[in-house]
Amino acid sequence: MTKTAKFGGSSLSDARQFKKAAAIVRADGDRRFVVVSAPGKRFAGDEKITDLLYRCADLAARREDFAAPFALIRDRYLSIERDLGLEQAHMAPALDEIEAALFSGAASRDFAASRGEYLCARLMAAYLDAPMVDAARLIRFRDDGTLDMEATERQSAFLREMPMAVIPGFYGAMPNGTIRTFSRGGSDITGAIIARAVKANEYENWTDVDGFMMADPRIVPEARVMHAVSYEELRELSYMGASVLHEESIFPVREARIPIHVLNTNRPEAGGTWIVNEGTLMKEHRQGLVAGISGRKGFTMITLTKENLHKQVGFGYGLLKILDRHNISFESMPCGIDNLTVVLNDGDIKGKMDILYHEIRTELKPDTVEIASSIALIATVGRGMAHTLGVAARLFTALSEAGISSRIIDQSPKEMNLIVGVDQRDFEGAIRAIYHAFCD
Ligand code: ASP
C-alpha cells in the first residue's frame, strides 16, 4: 500500500504544526510521498508565505525596497528551523540566495512564489530524515503553459523505487527549465499528480477542517461532515458554490481511480471525507440519501408565456438564439404547456437586460414576459436520491413548513441533483430546512 500525503499551508505554519504533520507521516509507513505547501497563516490576520513572496517579487520588479516582507519570510523559516533543531536544512544560505535573485532581477514572479514550497520541503525532508525531490525535476509544463502529464509521469517514474520522498507543491518546470507555478492553491494539484505518478492507493489531503461539510457551516452551524462523496456529486456541489479542493486536483487521481481522503492535521482521528468514483462508493460509506447541499445567489428568471407554447416548434430555439447572440449561457430551462422559464446568471446579463427584453418581445412575440430578479438556486445532491420515492415531496414539505415557496424546480434526468430556486431572502432558511429534512 502506498499513500501520497499532501499537507496544506495551515498544517505547516510553524514548528508546532510541522510536528503534527511529521507525526502523522511517521504513524503510517504507507505514507511514502509527502507533498508540502508553503507555511500558511498561524492566526487570523497573519500572512501566508506565498503572499509575502509575491509581494517581494512585485516590489523587486519595480526596483522598490522589499526588505520588510522578506524579513518576515526569513524570520518564519529560521524560527521553524531553530525550533525543530534542523540546522542541516541550511535555511540561512538558501534564503540569502533567493534574496539575491530577487535583488538582481533574476527571479521571475513564479520562481519567487515557488520558493515558499521549496524551502518548506527542505525543512520537512530534514525533519523526516527523508530525501527531498525538487518538483522542477518531476512536473513538466508544455510551452503553452499547460501540464504535460505524459512527460511528468515519465519524469516521476523513478519515485516509485524510493522508499520515501518529500516534494514541494505548487510548481514545476517549463521545457526550457524555468519555474512555473500552478494557480493559487495549486499544491493540491501537485499532490494529485504525484499520487498518480507513484500509483498510490490513496491521496491524502491534510488540511485544517474535518472534511467537507454537508452544508455551509456559516448557514448550518451544526452541519455534519460528509463521510464519503463521489467525484460527480462533488462537481455538482462545487458548481453550486461549495468550496472544495482545487478543481484541477481532482482529474489526475479521478482518471487513475485513486481515492482522495481529506483529513484534519489538527484532529487526525476525525475520520475525514472520502472522495471516490461513483462505482467505488460503497453502501456503507453512505450516510443517507443526500451527500450535501449547496447554493448560490445572484440569478434572474425570465418567464415567457404563450398559449399552446408546447405545440410551437422553434420557440425555445428562438430564445436560445437570442441568448447565444449575447454570449449568455443559461443555468436551467424548465417549461410547461404555456410557459417557458430560463434562469440566468446576473453576472452574465449585466447591462444586457433591456436589449434581451426587447429582442424577446419582438422576435418571439410571447403573450407575457415576466422577469424575477434576486433569485437563489439551491442544489440538493446525492446519488442515493435517484429512484427513491418521495424525495421531492420531503424537500417541498420541508420548504413549505418553513414558509418558503419555491420559484422554480429542476431535476436532472440522472436524479442526482434537485435544484430549487427561491427568493434570495429565503436562501439561508431554505438550506437549513432542506438540511434538517435529509441530514439530521
Ligand atoms: N502556497 C500556494 C498558495 O498559497 C499553493 C498552495 O498552498 O497550495 O496558493
CATH class of the largest domain: Alpha Beta
Euclidean distance between termini CA atoms: 36 Å
State the secondary-structure class.
alpha/beta
Which spans have pLDDT < 50 for at least 5 consecutive residues? Answer: none
Average residue pLDDT? 93
Rg from alpha-carbon coordinates: 25 Å
| CATH fold descriptor of the largest domain | Carbamate kinase
What is the overall shape? globular
Order of strands in the sheet with most strands: 3-2-1-6-8-9-7
Could you characterize the architecture of this molecule?
The protein is built from 15 helices and 15 strands. Helix 3 runs antiparallel to helix 4. Helix content is 37%, strand content 20%. By secondary structure, the protein is of the alpha/beta class. The strands form three sheets. A seven-stranded mixed β-sheet has the order 3-2-1-6-8-9-7, with helices on both faces. A six-stranded antiparallel β-sheet has the order 11-12-10-13-15-14. The chain is globular and about 80 Å long. It has two domains: 206 residues, 3-Layer(aba) Sandwich (Carbamate kinase), CATH 3.40.1160; 148 residues, 2-Layer Sandwich (VC0802-like), CATH 3.30.2130.10. Strand 11 and strand 12 form a beta hairpin. The structure holds aspartic acid (ASP). The site of aspartic acid (ASP) has 13 residues, from helix 8. Aspartic acid binds next to helix 8.
